[in-house]
Amino acid sequence: MRFQLSEQHQILQKAVRDFARAEVAPHARKWDEEERFPREIVPKLAALGLLGIRIPEEYGGAGMDTTSYAICIEEIAKVDGSLALTVASHNGLGTGHILAFGSDAQKKKYLPKATTGEWLAAWALTEPGSGSDSAGLTTTAKKDGAGWVLNGTKMFITQGSVGGFCVVLARTNPSAAKQKGITAFVVEHGTPGFSASKHLEKLGCRSSDTVELTFDNVKISDEQRIGEIDHGFTDTMRILDRGRISIAAMALGLGRGALDMAVAYSKDRKQFNRPIADYQAVQWMLADMKAELDAAALLTYRAAALADKNLPFAREASMAKLFASEAASRACNKSLQIHGGYGYTREFPVERHLRDAKICEIGEGTSEVQRMVIAKHLLRG
Ligand SMILES: Cc1cc2nc3c(=O)[nH]c(=O)nc-3n(C[C@H](O)[C@H](O)[C@H](O)COP(=O)(O)OP(=O)(O)OC[C@H]3O[C@@H](n4cnc5c(N)ncnc54)[C@H](O)[C@@H]3O)c2cc1C
């Protein structure tokens, strides 16, 4: 049986694909080389509903499902990994946390501005000393009268300097078990003591904003606390489960983009008087890429379909992210090989795809962490 998206999902897929080809692809190389966040694309993303993909219409969002979310990310990633990462983290992490666990007042305050792009969202869990062991975070939030004071440093935060607000995970109970004493807060840019202390120069996804954030005696009110006190880490794990579907979709898009380029190039490029596509060595690389990426698609859209049916999907999301990210890196590498020396130059986008794909094996839990999650589910059963 052939996997088929619904008619509605296919219409969305075509709309986002057309947008990505017309508005993103022509600029992606320049944005990457300039290593700057392309603020000018934000109103266009908003107009298409891509900044409020899962946000209900009452808050100005597109009110779409997780399958739609994956489709949007995949189509953008086919032409630009950086923008796919921006859209994925804005929707899945920053606004996703408020959508899932925020109060009505927080949803009314933050979600409409997030959907218009007036406020892009960041989400800060990782710290210089805690990545895979994310519950080891040391940023603190201490009670200060009716409010809180935040102190600490966050690392690798997407939209950290270009966002309007940031969801921050901080330790509120140092004497509790490390996963139990963490709480989420939302902090607006411009709050005294909250700053982007360092822009990080990266291998790939260079036009996505990645920064170190500092919280130096940042005073916030209790209305900025998201969810229950000391419950932030449990909520965070649920946010990452869905986030992993979007990183799988990003990997899928980058891989499929690289495959399309390899097919076109291999039919065009002649060596020994024949298109290189005539050679079996090239055909086998194309065949392996296609088979692996279709397998990645099945895993990704299975996880999304489970999420849409409100069925457990954590293990399936980890499997999708693990497989799709590693398959995408292999596919981009093979595509570059098929492009030969030209693929190694920046004249062709395939080298950018290879650089961008690598983050999918690291962000929102490394491949090793995904294997730990999958094994935990297997063994506990
Ligand atoms: C471009 C980019 C964007 C990001 N965006 C965000 C963001 O918006 N918000 C945010 O909070 N974070 C973000 N991150 C952080 C990202 O989630 C972390 O980098 C990731 O979780 C890995 O943590 P680490 O870098 O500290 O690596 P480490 O945890 O130090 O891992 C180093 C290596 O050790 C391995 N390892 C660690 N523990 C184990 C173990 N128990 N068993 C086996 N192997 C292990 C890892 O798999 C890895 O190979 C981003 C990172 C990047 C690079």
Summarize the structure.
With 381 residues, the protein is α+β, with helices and mostly antiparallel strands.
Structure description:
There is one protein chain. This protein is α+β, with helices and mostly antiparallel strands. It has three domains: 7-120, Acyl-CoA dehydrogenase/oxidase, N-terminal domain (Butyryl-Coa Dehydrogenase, subunit A, domain 1); 122-231, Butyryl-CoA Dehydrogenase, subunit A, domain 2 (Beta Barrel), CATH 2.40.110; 234-380, Butyryl-CoA Dehydrogenase, subunit A, domain 3. The protein is built from ten helices and ten strands. It has helices at residues 7-34, 42-47, 66-77, 81-101, 104-116, 232-268, 280-308, 314-344, 350-357, 367-380; strands at 121-124, 140-144, 147-158, 165-171, 182-188, 194-199, 210-220, 225-226, 270-271, 274-275. It has a four-stranded mixed beta sheet with strand order 1-4-5-8, covered by helices on one side. β9 (270-271) and β10 form a beta hairpin. α6 packs antiparallel against α7 and α6 (232-268) runs antiparallel to α9. The two termini are 29 Å apart. Residues 89, 123-126, 131-132, 156-158, 202, 205, 210, 359, 362-366, 368-369 line the site of flavin-adenine dinucleotide.
